[in-house]
Amino acid sequence: MADFSTAPAPPPSLPPPVEPPLSRPQQQPTLKRTASAASFNEVLDESLSRKRMKEEHAVPGPAPAPVPADADNGNAPALPEQLAQELQCGCCSELVYRPVIVAPCQHFFCGSCCVLWIRVSRINNNGGTNCPACRGPSTSVTPFRPLQSIIDVLLRAAPHMARTARERQQADELYGGTSMRIPAPREASPEPDINPSDYVRPCPNCILGNPYGWRCPVPLVDPNIDPEHAWLVEDGTPPGHALCGNCENLLALPSPLTTKCDFCQVSFCGIGVQDRCRAAPVLSQHPHGFSDVGDLIQSSSVYECFNSNTVEVEIMLDYLTTQRITPRHIYIEIVNHIQAQPRAFLPLIQQELFVDIHALPAGTDPDPEAPRNRICRQCAAEVFLYGLRDWFLRERQKGFLEESVLSRKNCVNGAECGQQSDFEHAREFNHMVPYAASPQPDADGENAAAREEAGIPGLVPNSPLPTPDRTDEATTSMPIVSSEAPAVDVPVVQEPSDEPMQP
């Protein structure tokens, strides 16, 4: 066996032969010298020639537009205008003021515009609302603080774009800067129980095992089960039953859930829609269609109470907003004032204010002088409108109105002026005065016609008594003012004197 450990190492590889370099003439080393003017001229000529050659070989094309020196100054005024257009409110088309953002669509509006939109939509859309821009369903409205910071910077650069002081004041009165929850639509009233057949369907209390805890003593027969013994429509309303004044469905009169309005004499089932199919106690009821001040703005009946005097209505609305008075508070004060009168609600009953309020015919009032304990929402709205103007007359006497409002001259025609719809005339003169005497029932129970024959004027019910005129000191009669009777001029009788009469 060969021993490879002692094998000789291979010979080292030799490098390839190197060819000798070409012979060059040897240069003598030169010393460094300082730059001279001639050398600088040579370098300058060389750079110019290179630039000239570069321009000759360049591809021809359009020359770039010259940039003016004041380009930045020209764009500066246009930037605030363009930014203001992007930040316009979708409702009022003005620069947004105290912006809010609507969820979930993320559109922004003025806080006050969004409040008014919600109020109007609650009336038109049965209580619910949506985004004013995309009409999508909305759930909440929150302040848009990042956008408010941008608007603050914009107004510092362009103060002329700010809203007027009056607009800001009105917007601040409507929107307080807090988040708002958009309420869901109220439950719609059920469709009337329109029976296409010739039979009357049973009421909810006629059904066996109904969830209301009471069943009619003589329940109606279901026409689908026993048409031979069912009640015919042509026979009228079944005994012990009536139609609800709100949902117009059949109800059982003896049911514990059924309530009756003491003003319109219409019954309500208490089943169809909660708090709407019900006649509540007079002071606990809510007037229909008047939940906040925004509802008063949208109601034409309010302007009719003031004889279409828009100036006086606007003064009242500003007063309600400043004092934070709700229609519910006004209604309670009106009811308390009427109940404090000797005849209470009797003048309203005699004026037939509660007739033909509902689509159903009103019932017969068994005793017009009976006390009134329960009232429906529609009748409560009539009471509210009946006493609204007189309530504001009493409220003006508290002295909370501005001096410019109270210092206006009274119109010579008073509350009966026919020019109240003229804005200039209504703004110049005050028409918030009691109505003139009219032949109507008085507080003491006497008939107005009899008093008119006796020469004693009457007063409109629940209107404040006129203030006696004391400017004429030479008058020979003095007015007697009472809280229960109108003013009557009584001649002054001079007491006999102890001195003898001179011939």
From TrEMBL:
Biased composition (Pro residues): 8-23
GO cellular component annotations of the record: nucleus
Keyword Zinc assigned: yes
UniProt keyword annotation of Lipid biosynthesis present: no
Bias type Basic and acidic residues, positions: 47-58
GO MF: ubiquitin-protein transferase activity; zinc ion binding
Example of a GO biological process term: ubiquitin-dependent protein catabolic process
Subcellular location: Nucleus
Keywords: Cell cycle, Metal-binding, Nucleus, Transferase, Ubl conjugation pathway, Zinc, Zinc-finger
RING-type domain location: 89-135
Region feature (Disordered): 1-77, 435-503
Compositional bias per record (Low complexity), positions renumbered to this chain: 68-77
Pfam families reported in the protein's UniProt record: zf-C3HC4, zf-CRD
Name of the protein in question: RING-type domain-containing protein
